[in-house]
Amino acid sequence: MRLKILGCSGGIGGALRTTSMLLDENILIDAGTGVGDLSLDELTKIDHVFVTHSHLDHVTSIPFIVDSVGYMRDKPLTIHATQATQEILKQHLFNWKIWPDFSEIPSLRKPYMRYENISVGMPVELDERRITPLPANHVVPAVGFHLDSGKSSLVFTGDTTSNDAFWKIVNKIENLHYLIIETAFCNREKELAITSKHLCASMLSESLNKLEHKPKVYITHLNPGEADIIMNEVKEYAKKFNPSRLMNNQVFDL
User: Fold this and answer.
1) Does the N terminus or the C terminus of the chain have fewer Cβ atoms within 10 A?
2) Starting at the edge strand that comes first in sequence, how are the strands of the sheet with 129-135 ordered?
């Protein structure tokens, strides 16, 4: 398994891209603006999108993928999401007002897109790749993901604030090599982090102290314009975990 980071920022501007990760050639973990850097040929190979939650910075490219290459494919794009997230996407995105409902195009019998339900703790097996939804604590229904090749694992928190249920599960993953965890705000915006159910540096440190393993830790979803400030605080508050900033085009072999 190889995971390539297509986007890992909390916003856009210049080289910044929002959350999206390409697993091998045919699976996306979220579909933010980073997906737009893929070629048409690369887009046709994507068979699955695993969605952490319904916020626009994580799903914005799904409508464009289907619209751009749906007719080039011989099977529908599968959107793996919780039932709650599916309902939000159906009501507020693929609703014929914001975007056409591609689960009905070109026909109900042969659509360009289909939904597949996922649930926390229930693994999805795809060609010896195991993807398991993890609990997240955000302002909308949300999950993180555990990617397991059998040899090693990577955990992505998705957007979340403090969440004891998440750490109880992660601490049972014996082959955990990498942890990608969000920190959207600097400490002076802690109240905003709490309200929006994200993390700031001090909250990150409190969360990581619940981690019983020693994976390589990468920080994602930094607020544009404050990335350096956030990372300086992260390195001060969570220095014993030696966290690094997640970067576009970074590759993880599992």
Assistant:
1) C
2) 124-126, 129-135, 143-148, 153-156, 176-182, 216-220, 244-245
Q: Which tokens sit at 174? A: 């014996």
Q: Which CATH number covers residue 47?
A: 3.60.15.10
- CA 142 to CA 133: how far, in whole Å? 9
Peptide bond into 106 cis (omega under 30): yes
* Structural domains of the chain, count: 1
pLDDT digits (tens, 9 = 90+) for 213-229: 999 999 999 999 999 99
3 state SS of 244: strand
pLDDT in tens, 76-119: 999 999 999 999 999 999 999 999 999 999 999 999 999 999 99
Beta strands in the chain (DSSP E): 2-7, 20-23, 27-31, 48-50, 77-81, 113-117, 124-126, 129-135, 143-148, 153-156, 176-182, 216-220, 244-245, 251-253
- Side chain identity at residue 201, one-letter code: A
